[in-house]
Amino acid sequence: MEHKQRPLGRPRQNKNTISTKDKIVNIATNLFLNKGYQIVSMDDVAKECDVTKATVYYYYATKADLFTDAMVQMMVRIRENMYTILSTNKPLKERLLDVAKIHLTATMDIDIKSFMRDAKISLSDKHLKQMQDAEDKMYEVLAQTIDKAIQEGEIPKRHTLLSAHAFVALLYVGDYKDVDQKPLIPDIEDLAQQIVDFYWNGLSK
């Protein structure tokens, strides 16, 4: 089954069949991802949503609240999409390759680590905990898949959560670009394959 539709965590683009709050958070997600937390204002979100700033503030008291909800919902979508991909009957390595391709495609224009680092300096401990909880649940989906593969004898016994974190860490390495904004490997299919091969070499021995 091909998974080339919507990038892994991006919201749906149909603005006509969703509530005002969902419209605000969906548009805000794309603004934050494209421009960064510090640049985007509540005015920007209101204008893009074609609503008043008061409407945005009705649902979100602060930009930090809006950003946190946007990121939490994005991670929920990522978790759901990962679950769908990882629940197929393909061998584990092929499922990991599908996840890698979609992740690398979705993040090829975003420096995720810098993006989150810039935002976190403006967030409270409460906001950070909400995002950390959502992120942990993403890792749990992958860890459960690895655990099942261990139970079925597809791979040797491993620390499942560590294995999940290691895989995602390698995906972030794949997002690396040098000072001229050149990626490690330009072709995403090749990059995804090499990352998964590298990871699988350690996981399966």
TrEMBL record:
Keywords in alphabetical order: DNA-binding, Repressor
Keyword Iron-sulfur: no
Pfam short name (any one): TetR_N
DNA-binding in keyword set: yes
UniProt domain HTH tetR-type: residue ranges: 18-78
Domain of life: Bacteria
DNA-binding region coordinates: 41-60
Protein name as annotated: TetR/AcrR family transcriptional regulator
